[in-house]
Amino acid sequence: MRRIFLMILPFILYITGLLAYYFDKINGYQFIIFIIVGLGISIFGFFVYRNQKKLKAAFLGIFYILALLAVFESRLIDYEKYTYFLMSYNEPFEIVKDSGINVLAVEVIEIPYITDLNYLIHTMEFSTNKEVLDAEVVTNKIR
């Protein structure tokens, strides 16, 4: 029974961490810690059952899967810094000269680390001379 629990526990930690991250209960750093703890459990199981070839191979496989997930999910840390997305107006431009076909674009600005929205909007409008159309709070679902 203990063997099965040690084999399933890393995946339970991963799924729990993934759901907690998705629903904004934890941040990306804490989610990576969940995966690292799962890696530690698989290494522990590998050394505890090193004399039994099948269990040793199973824990090694679990370690490889979690290591790949850790590398894949570590990219989330790059997105932790963004707090707001600001949308502002861009001047329309012609796709082909003298065709009369214009593209009306909206500029999206990713803002890191600033949490005061009123200050942020005021600063962006003052510094770029563009009106801020919308401000969107960045959540883990958007990341």
Task: Give a description of the structure.
The protein is α+β, with helices and mostly antiparallel strands. The chain is 52% helix and 17% strand. It contains 4 helices and 5 strands. The chain has helices at 2-22, 28-48, 53-73, 117-128, and strands spanning 82-89, 93-94, 102-103, 106-112, 132-137. It has a 3-stranded antiparallel beta sheet, with helices on one face. It starts with a helix and ends in a 6-residue tail after the last strand.
Quick summary of this structure?
By secondary structure, this protein is α+β, with helices and mostly antiparallel strands. It has helices at residues 2-22, 28-48, 53-73, 117-128, and strands spanning 82-89, 93-94, 102-103, 106-112, 132-137.
State the total count of DSSP E strands: 5
Return the average pLDDT rounded to an integer. Answer: 88
Q: Name the helix and strand elements from N-terminus to C-terminus, one letter apiece.
A: HHHEEEEHE
Strand order of the largest sheet: 4-1-5
Helix content, binned percent: 40-55%
The biggest sheet, with number of strands, parallel, antiparallel or mixed sense and barrel status, is:
3 strands, antiparallel
Number of helices: 4
Strand content: 15-25%
